Amino acid sequence: MDFSWLGDPFYQEYLIEGFINTLWLIAVSAVGGLALAVLVAITRLKAPRPLALAVQGFTTVMRGTPLLVQLFFFYYGVGRLLEGIPGIQDSVIWPLLRDPFFYGALTFILSVGAYSGEVIRGALLSVPPGEREAGRAFGLTPLQVFFRLWLPRAIQQCLPTLTGEMILLLKSVPLVSTIAMMDLLQAANIIRDETFLVYEPLMLIGGIYLAMTLVLTLVLRQVERHFPGMKPERGRGWLPRRSLHPHGEAP
After folding, report:
1. pLDDT averaged per 10 residues, the chain (length 251)
2. pTM
3. Maximum Cα–Cα distance for the chain, whole Å?
4. Both ends of the chain: CA-CA distance in Å?
């Protein structure tokens, strides 16, 4: 194994740029995707039927087609279409529209929004109506009931599933190397082409992704542990707490 190339500033620059771009893409896609997921869930439940059906069609398409196909569609399809619009290349938004990062983030935001939106919708339906009625009885507005009671209870129930979605997002990010975006995998490809080493760059990138996955898992697990209603008892793992009878016996 030859890792002497790690000491070359030329390759270090590629790795650092790819690592930073990867982190930014994950952060933007996660935040934007979860925000879209809440909007998708609300629309499916509360919007007029035509709009709800349109959003259902969106989620069906996004969940039923490969992520790589979606990435190519937006980058090569929509991107090429935008190039043909008169005056678009002279506009202030053109630097954004020609950047592969934009299309990668757009694709992942829509994908996370579609998958997580259905998860949150199911969790919202599982919240007992009595909890919302209690909030209204205390004088909360419908908006306050949703953001203070209904949505937090739904997130509490589907948080482990959303954690899995974030880990899947992390492992999907290397797909952006196919649209010439400088991420970790693209950096590894450049190093392989320059050094003619096949395994070492890929092993390094695989180790970095493994470390990122472990860190993300630990962070999200802490979020689960400290989310209201999710903190487990010591020694009981993830089992819910059980109340005891006055004599100390479990019911």
Report:
1. 90 95 96 97 94 96 96 94 88 91 97 96 92 87 89 90 93 94 94 91 95 93 77 47 47 45
2. 0.87
3. 80
4. 60
